[in-house]
Amino acid sequence: MANIKQLEMIVKLRQDVENKAAKLMEQAQQAFAQQEQQLQTLQTYRKDYMTKLNNSGESGVSGQLFMQYQQFVMRLGDALGRAEQSMNVARQVYEQRRQGWLQARGEKNAIEMLIEREQQKQLLIQNQREQKQMDEFASRSFIRRAQNS
Predict the structure, then answer these.
(1) CATH code assigned at 87
(2) What is the dihedral of CA 113, 114, 117, 119, to 10 degrees?
(3) pLDDT of residue 142
(4) Which of 100, 117, 118, 119 has the most CB atoms lying inside 10 A of its own CB?
(5) Which residues span the domain enclosing 71?
(6) pTM of the model
(7) Which residue numbers in the chain have pLDDT < 50?
(8) Could you say which DSSP state residue 31 is in?
């Protein structure tokens, strides 16, 4: 089995990889949240603008002004579509980064478990050696006492 010191060095390297993956995931999460916020802002703005358009329509507006409102609402719709696409891309990037972080964490944890098993194995071997030495000591002591009696 591999040397524990070597495995501990690998764990440190894996910890660095995990930390980098966590930073990338955090950045992606922030970008996703920012895109989501931008989409919500545009949706709110569009809703407010539609309410304004409806209120203006009830009080009577010129055909030209109504057309301008309508064109602006269409541009807002386009902007909403782009914002939604950007948010979906940001969500996908976040999920990919999250999976990368989970994988890095899993690899590090697997090596840590291997170290723990190796340490337990070495402790068991050491305990068996000590027990064997104690048994030999007791056996020799018994033989000496039997010869001296």
Answers:
(1) 1.10.287.1700
(2) -110
(3) 84
(4) 100
(5) 4-148
(6) 0.73
(7) none
(8) H
